[in-house]
């Protein structure tokens, strides 16, 4: 167990990951999202970035030209600006690793090994370290050296072949689910490995990849193929095994989605005031799936006779799963999300923009609670915690081995 993990006793309502220190050597989205989840659960996360800053800091958005993507994905964290291509910089990272419980990286496979910062390099001095590597295709296999991004993973893992319109026009998922999902799998792996490490059974190397994440979600499609022998294709908004389960346009041109099971079929027909009990095409869930196109045309004509919100109100009262197709602005202003603080806007804590919270609510999860750090905001404080004196810190700043947001001397350190 690291020095940072030692506590004198569990305080009331202690955060789930209080006392856990995470070294975040990541960029882009998948790795940072993994460590954001951990920070929202209460871990101390140290963002290790180049002296000239993470590239995401330079993606400026909006009239204020703020690095909003960086702000959203690096909340709660501390910033250490260090050049790991220098021996002194690598020495500092190794020293921090010895005082950490977790290290997360998403460099190209083998890149940190060339800097002497791989799991194999560190585990001798850090036997309890949980080391999570996030990559496009994983740490081994014939594709290990290929560069993988979200779109490539969606295609490679089969998702792109089944996402899109029924006419065959493909579409990627609108959210970068390969990146986000891999970050989640990384966090799950870290939490499981931490449990083992805290039982005194040693650390672990977690290997998660974007391609594996997408493939791992293919449950329905693999079942469909195994059952029919036919490669699954795009179904638009339809479900692969049941109907009606898709989107319909209503009388006011607004769109809703419904998912009708056998249990809710009678109630659904009652709301729409249609009697299909004598139609063999729609008798039973599988029959409705087989004849889903004919059923969809019939239902679409009925939904056109009233506004969306009227239909949603009636369907919900009858216990039929349904909902609106929200735009992003509508989602941000939704009362349900407001009640659950999914998109907090707090000028003092986060700035003028919205934050996107982790969807986990419990007294042990503080969620988003502090804005992203300035570049090198905590460099001097972290070096001081390692026992490095003022004179050496000045030299490291002067030689650009490290960067300090406040000034080039420890007298004005931030942290």
TrEMBL record:
Keywords per UniProt: Transferase
A GO MF term: transferase activity
Pfam families: CoA_transf_3
Keyword Transferase: yes
Top-rank taxon: Bacteria
InterPro entries recorded: CoA-transferase_III_domain (IPR050483), CoA-Trfase_fam_III (IPR003673), CoA-Trfase_III_dom3_sf (IPR044855), CoA-Trfase_III_dom_1_sf (IPR023606)
PANTHER family (UniProt xref): SUCCINATE--HYDROXYMETHYLGLUTARATE COA-TRANSFERASE
Protein name as it appears in the record: CoA transferase
């Amino acid at each position: 167990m690291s020095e940072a993990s030692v506590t004198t006793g569990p305080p009331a309502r202690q955060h789930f990951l209080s006392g856990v220190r995470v070294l975040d050597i990541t960029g882009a989205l998948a790795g940072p999202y993994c460590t954001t989840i951990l920070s929202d659960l209460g871990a101390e996360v140290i963002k290790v970035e180049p002296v000239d800053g993470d590239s995401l800091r330079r993606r400026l958005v909006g009239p204020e030209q703020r690095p909003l993507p960086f702000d959203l994905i690096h909340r709660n964290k501390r910033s250490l600006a260090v050049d790991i291509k220098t021996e002194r910089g690598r020495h500092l990272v190794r020293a921090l690793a010895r005082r950490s419980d977790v290290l997360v990286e998403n460099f190209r496979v083998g890149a940190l090994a060339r800097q002497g910062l791989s799991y194999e390099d560190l585990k001798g001095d850090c036997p309890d370290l949980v080391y999570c590597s996030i990559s496009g295709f994983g740490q081994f296999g014939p594709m290990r050296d290929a560069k993988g991004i979200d779109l490539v993973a969606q295609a490679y893992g089969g998702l792109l072949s089944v996402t899109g319109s029924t006419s065959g026009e493909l579409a990627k998922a609108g959210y970068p689910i390969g990146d986000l999902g891999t970050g989640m799998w990384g966090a799950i792996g870290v939490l499981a490995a931490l449990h083992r490490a805290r039982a005194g059974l040693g650390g672990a190397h977690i290997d998660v990849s974007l391609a594996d994440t997408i493939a791992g979600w293919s449950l329905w499609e693999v079942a469909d193929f195994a059952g029919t022998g036919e490669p699954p294709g795009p179904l638009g908004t339809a479900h692969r095994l049941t109907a009606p389960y898709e989107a319909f346009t209503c009388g006011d041109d607004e769109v809703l989605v419904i998912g009708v099971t056998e249990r809710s079929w009678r109630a659904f027909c009652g709301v729409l005031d249609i009697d299909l009990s004598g139609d063999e095409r729609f008798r039973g869930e599988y029959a409705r799936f087989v004849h889903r196109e004919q059923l969809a045309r019939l239902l679409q004509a009925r939904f056109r006779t009233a506004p969306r919100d009227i239909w949603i109100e009636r369907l919900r009262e009858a216990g039929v799963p349904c909902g609106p197709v929200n735009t992003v602005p509508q989602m941000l202003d939704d009362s349900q999300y407001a009640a659950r603080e999914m998109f907090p806007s707090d000028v003092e804590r986060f700035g003028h923009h919205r934050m996107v919270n982790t969807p986990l609510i419990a007294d042990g999860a503080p969620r988003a609670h502090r804005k992203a750090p300035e570049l090198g905001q905590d460099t001097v404080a972290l070096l001081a915690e390692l026992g490095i004196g003022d004179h050496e810190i000045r030299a490291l700043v002067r030689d650009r081995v490290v960067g300090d947001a406040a000034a080039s001397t420890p007298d004005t350190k931030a942290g």
